[in-house]
């Protein structure tokens, strides 16, 4: 059934112009705000917790704009399966690529970090074309082996290498003579609250993945935050911010705080472009959070001789 849906429906659909796909997803937008409101409770709770000082009407406006953006992402995600190199270059541009160019000149490997904000999927497609560094995307596999294989084939056709989160070091070993840029999305809900970095994020105590900071220190990779900004429908820019050229110069938590604050700033500026349908705050705050943080700091400092 999955093969039929992919070859008979999805791929032919992806060859339609993006404007035609938007017409289809506009109809879907009307459907999910009326008949079948997608994850309505999760979205409303997330927005209310994040913006407690906004009125009910303001929060509702964010929700409706998010639904509109989500259906745009659906159209763009379908298009990404067959989008041409020329078109994706035209639709996603980097405003300050000199940051990556300078790090390449200094022979620094890089971690590119952000969150599920605006169209991150197109960056997965085009990253290897945008920068001189070899693009490596790290994530967890889909539950369906068929869909995982096909989606990753499409994601990697312009040079991106997709690596499993639990075995990415083997991929890096293959490319130890290259300069790499690892793509990480750091705003998922962590699997273990006791191994998370806890901080204030969007007006609430939040468990944040510590993987970016841990990986940067382990591998000695520079860290660059990227913000994808929506210029108009189907057109984006990518703005880079250098967080740490030498991550081992930073104290425990410094890198995590920095990239999370930059993401928070983007969300507050235009909240409709973040993935509000994700169950972001499902981890409970540990009872003795101060003791936990002290233990984490001590373990980190011992490991990296800080």
Q: Describe it for me?
A:
The protein is built from 12 helices and 9 strands. The chain has 306 residues and is of the alpha/beta class. Helix 2 (18-32) packs antiparallel against helix 4 (56-79) and helix 3 crosses helix 4 (56-79). The protein is globular, with a radius of gyration of 20 Å. The model has no long low-confidence stretch (mean pLDDT 94).
The DSSP helix count reads: 12
Beta-strand portion reads: 15-25%
Structural shape:
globular
Task: Give the tally of β-strands.
Answer: 9
Structural class: alpha/beta
Order of helices and strands: HHHHHEHEHEHEHEEEHEEHH
Q: Taking Cα atoms only, what radius of gyration do you get, to the nearest Å?
A: 20 Å
* Mean of pLDDT: 94
Largest sheet: 7 strands, mixed
Q: Unreliable segments (pLDDT under 50, ≥5 consecutive)? A: none
């Amino acid at each position: 059934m999955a093969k039929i849906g992919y070859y008979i429906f999805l791929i032919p659909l992806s060859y339609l112009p993006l404007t035609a796909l938007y017409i289809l997803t506009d109809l879907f937008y009307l459907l999910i705000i009326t008949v079948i409101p997608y994850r309505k409770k999760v979205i409303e709770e997330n927005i209310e917790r994040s913006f407690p000082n906004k009125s009910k009407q303001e929060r509702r406006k964010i929700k409706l704009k998010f639904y509109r953006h989500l259906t745009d992402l659906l159209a763009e995600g379908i298009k990404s399966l067959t989008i041409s190199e020329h078109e994706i270059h035209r639709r996603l541009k980097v405003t300050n690529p000199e940051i990556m160019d300078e790090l390449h000149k200094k022979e620094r490997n890089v971690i590119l970090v952000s969150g599920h904000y605006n169209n991150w999927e197109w960056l997965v497609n085009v990253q290897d074309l945008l920068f001189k560094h070899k693009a490596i995307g790290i994530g967890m596999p889909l539950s369906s082996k068929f869909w995982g294989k096909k989606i990753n084939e499409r994601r990697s056709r312009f040079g991106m290498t997709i690596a499993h989160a639990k075995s990415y070091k083997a991929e890096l070993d293959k490319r130890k003579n290259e300069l790499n840029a690892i793509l990480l999305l750091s705003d998922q809900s962590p699997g273990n609250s006791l191994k998370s970095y806890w901080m204030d994020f969007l007006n609430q105590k939040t468990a944040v993945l510590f993987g970016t900071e841990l990986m940067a220190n382990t591998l000695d990779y520079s860290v660059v935050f990227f913000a994808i900004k929506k210029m108009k429908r189907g057109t984006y820019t990518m703005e880079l911010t250098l967080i740490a050229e030498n991550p081992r110069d930073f104290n425990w938590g410094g890198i995590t705080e920095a990239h999370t604050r930059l993401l928070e700033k983007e969300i507050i500026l235009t909240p409709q472009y973040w993935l509000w349908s994700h169950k972001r705050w499902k981890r409970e705050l540990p009872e003795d959070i101060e003791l936990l943080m002290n233990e984490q700091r001590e373990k980190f400092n011992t490991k990296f001789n800080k």
